[in-house]
Amino acid sequence: MAEKKATAKKTPAATPAKADTNGYKINAEEWGFTKGDTDSQVMAALSTRSALTATTYKAFSGGGDGLEVTDVMGELRKAGEEVSSGNMSRVEKMLTQQALTLDAIFNNMAQRSHKQDSFKGIEVLMRLALKAQAQSRATVEALAEIKNPKPVTFVKQANMSQGHQQVNNTYAGASLDGGIQSRTENSHSEQNKLLEVSDGNYLDFGAQAAAS
After folding, report:
1. φ and ψ at residue 138, rounded to 5 degrees
2. Phi, psi for 202 (deg, rounded to 5)
3. Each residue of 170-189: pLDDT tens digit?
4. Where is pLDDT greater, at 192 or 52?
């Protein structure tokens, strides 16, 4: 009777763990974190920078598990650095796309209002259409302001007086530029002149009283 050879059963290969596309995978040094930072501090810093925004982008992008939050965070950080360095091209493209999207909403609401039978339905949709139109115009104005900023005018502050108010910017007893004396010095000199006669001699009130 032939003996049967024992064959080892093959163990199926372990399925690799599915990567969590919603997790944050960052280089701590690249983002400015140190070993002394706690997990709470790191999460707080990321939340106030781009982590929450990246999560929102992922939720509404339709990318699903194929889009990682970490990649979105990196792109948002890159966009911020571009603006900080003065490169506004990404912002200009974003505003242009938003203006076109708002214009599309305006047209959609206007067309839907045309199909309404009741005045209330027409009014509601037209209000939304006009709001989208106003926002589109405001977005275009913001884009135009970035492309062609208005010149800045510096106005020198001037002293304004009302009625008989006297404005004097000099200190009492100090002389102005060019040898012109201050108002206080002028007033003292005028008082001294009143005590002089035309020949330049000072009046002696004591002598006059004795003579009289």
Report:
1. -65, -35
2. -80, 145
3. 555 555 455 555 555 555 55
4. 52
| pTM of the entire predicted model | 0.54
Q: What is the SS3 assignment for 99-127?
A: HHHHHHHHHHHHHHHHCCCCHHHHHHHHH
Cα separation, 185 vs 182, whole angstroms: 5
Asked whether 44 and 90 are in contact (CB, 8 A), the reply is no
Domain co-membership, 80 together with 112: no
Residues 65 and 109 in one domain: no
Domain of residue 132, residue span? 88-150
Q: Which residues, other chains included, contact 33 with Cβ-Cβ below 8 Å and sequence gap of 6+?
A: 42, 45
Residue 114 neighbours by CB distance under 10 Å: 10
State both tokens at 152. 């800045």
